[in-house]
Amino acid sequence: MEACAALLVARGRPCLNLKKAAEEYRAPLNFEEVFGNSNPVELEVGCGNGGFVAEKAKRFPHTNFLAVELCSNVVLTAMERIRAEGIPNVRFLNIPAEILPCYLPEESVEKIYLNFSTPLPEKNREKQRLTAPRFLKIYSTLLQAGGSIEQKTDSEPFFDYSLEQYAQNGFSVTQVTRDLHRSEYAAENIVTEYEQGFLAQGKKIFRAVAVKI
Question: In this structure, are residues 93 and 63 in contact, taking their beta carbons and an 8 Å threshold?
């Protein structure tokens, strides 16, 4: 972790009341200081081992990327990947998504990526889904006018739930496909490690873009 310290811009403190922490604690990042430039910023929530954000950053060197991951050993693997490949335009936050407003200024992000978030199908865990209204409120606060959320999932029930929540919480849904790899969006798609596994199982990939109204 020390070797990758320059890539880690925030590490959330453990706390019992995440909502209270997000409301009371503020340490907004200065993106020009973090990245050394004023390029636009995009955010991946739940970056896993960093395969997606690494490829995205290489394809778009004039965009800065923030990658959020709650699990410390997983974010370490992602940081080691970025460090080993010498990718200059990625930084990491080892925090829960609930406290993103503690660190990111309002209307500072152009796009948010949700790649294969855990569906949490149990009804009593609905509020924990990363497309639940409380998270969409956070994303809306962080996104610039006209900014968007790009979501991919292998779970059709979770996808349907997400589409409904976008429509009810201030987003316009576009680019909806229920079979990404047979769609017009396949050519530009970055295949994640999870995605490769799902495809090997014969699963379809669902994708949509939700634009902040």
Answer: no
